[in-house]
Predict the structure.
Amino acid sequence: MKLVLATNNKGKVKEMSGLLAAFGIEVLSLNEFPSVGEIEEDGDTFLENAVKKATVTAGLTGLTALADDSGLEVDCLDGAPGVFSARFAGEGKDDRANNEKLLALLAGVTPDKRSARFQCVIAIAVPGGPVYTAQGACEGMVAPEPRGDGGFGYDPLFYLPEYGKTFAEIDLALKNKISHRGKALAGALDILSKLSKEESGGMTTVACRDF
Ligand code: IMP
């Protein structure tokens, strides 16, 4: 089975190719399909963005496509930055500026009101066919100041009370296990293994959602 990842991000491609190879899935990305161009993330939800990216990519390449969308929701900010997580402080997608803006907005907010979660939605689109989705979330809170050198994005500010550490302080294997992306990916792998068995003639049924 061939699968196109709806991204040009080489880090994401490397991470996912390793995982998917174990399922006998050949992974391509938008780097091999430059004519697809940038797909605008203009939806109001992670689900809309992931479904759009997967559907457009499947339509233009003629191959099954996988797309993800993720971000941070802070309860006392009514779910912001949400789908605007990458460009919270402007189009530059600057992690440091995003974190500074978040801390400034939460100045004076007490620990009991700093609850937040990372969300991730993965969509898998079959050309001309259904779109399957998997979702994952990870609960935590916004720390009063950045801690740790690992990870990316909001990791230094995302504090996990049960571990007493931020996402930037825990090791990657643990992050992959408990993170929003790790959980969504587990669901996506389940869908892909069923789809690839179907392609090779097996009789499996995949739970499906229509959009
Ligand atoms: P995208 O899913 O690649 O569009 O990422 C959206 C944005 O959400 C990223 O640029 C980060 O700011 C934030 N984000 C998503 N997942 C994580 C994570 O695991 N750690 C830190 N920030 C994240």
